[in-house]
Amino acid sequence: MNAENTEKPLLKVLLCSPRGFCAGVVRAIDSVEQALKRYGAPVYVRHEIVHNRYVVESLKAKGAVFVEELDEIPDTQAPVIFSAHGVPKSIPAESQRRNFFHLDATCPLVTKVHREAEIHHKRGRNILLIGHAGHPEVVGTLGQLPEGAITLVQTVEEAEALAPKDPDNLAYVTQTTLSLDDTAEIVATLKRRFPSIIAPHKEDICYATTNRQEAVKRVAPQVDALVVVGAPNSSNSRRLQEVAERAGCRYSVLVQRAADIEWSKFDSIRTLGVTAGASAPEVLVEEILDAFAARFKLVVETVSGADESGMFFPLPRQLRDTAAA
């Protein structure tokens, strides 16, 4: 074994911290697991509870049934859970109409954005939402208010082209999982064009997105390549890959599992950065490290940033006594 190790090239791995699960994701996954424990299978979940195939498959094996829309669910007494990304108001309304017992696992930081938008609307403001069209979180936020009350802004170009009816009566909110740098450019454009635009009281981009991006910015210039463990439909994971490239990393890649790694891209590297999106479990980070350890002799160093150990969101009210027990 030792002889084999000496033949492997040395690889220094800088492991980003924080990485992986955030408090909102932990709350969402725990909601499904506690519902299964309390009510038994099946538990229906509208949309992927979080954007990670491994997590979804693990919960399926325990009895969770994932659907895209409520009309796929038969009449049932079983719990119906809404995902961490949030849902339009039409979804709980439809759930009530069908007498479903629903549990809302929306991340509290997404709910904060929903409440902000509602307050602006009540005060008669036109609302701009900075985000990506089609992302479940954006669909949910747009669906908090009547159609046309919120205008989606995806790029600096769109911000430049905006022609609101009342440019002196604007407010903006943002998707929680965006790139800080991209959002800053769009916000700067909006503030230049509409000086009286009202910003969120507190930054909408969530603490976990911010912390993971800052950790990547520190590591990316120091490594030959960087691996982001996460799903291709995970917004915060894709932003981590983009942040790494902007911060000077020559090659960054988003992978779900070790089997996805294109090894020829790593032939000549001597330093590697590793991080994980907020919906990627640590077991997948370990799987990636094991795959590299089979080919390299690893020296692993953790690069620590913000401490998230105190972050916790309570479960939906109906499940709290189960979790305590």
The CATH fourth-level homologous superfamily of the largest domain: 4-hydroxy-3-methylbut-2-enyl diphosphate reductase, catalytic domain
User: Would you state the CATH class of the largest domain?
Assistant: Alpha Beta
| Rg (C-alpha, Å) | 21 Å
Largest β sheet strand count, sense and barrel closure: 5 strands, parallel
Strand order within the widest beta sheet = 10-9-11-1-12
Please explain how this structure is put together:
This protein is of the alpha/beta class. It has three domains: 2-22 and 207-304, Cobalt-precorrin-4 Transmethylase, domain 1, CATH 3.40.1010; 23-107, Rossmann fold, CATH 3.40.50; 109-193, 4-hydroxy-3-methylbut-2-enyl diphosphate reductase, catalytic domain (Cobalt-precorrin-4 Transmethylase, domain 1), CATH 3.40.1010.20. The chain contains twelve helices and twelve strands. It has helices at residues 2-7, 23-39, 53-62, 90-97, 108-122, 136-142, 156-161, 180-193, 207-219, 235-246, 282-293, 320-324; strands at residues 10-17, 43-46, 64-67, 79-82, 101-104, 126-130, 150-153, 170-174, 225-229, 251-255, 271-276, 297-304. The strands form three sheets. The protein has a five-stranded parallel beta sheet with strand order 10-9-11-1-12, with helices on both faces. The chain has a four-stranded parallel beta sheet with strand order 3-2-4-5, sandwiched between helices. Helix 3 (53-62) links the parallel strand 2 and strand 3. Helix 9 (207-219) runs parallel beside helix 10 (235-246). The N and C termini lie far apart (47 Å). The model has no long low-confidence stretch (mean pLDDT 94).
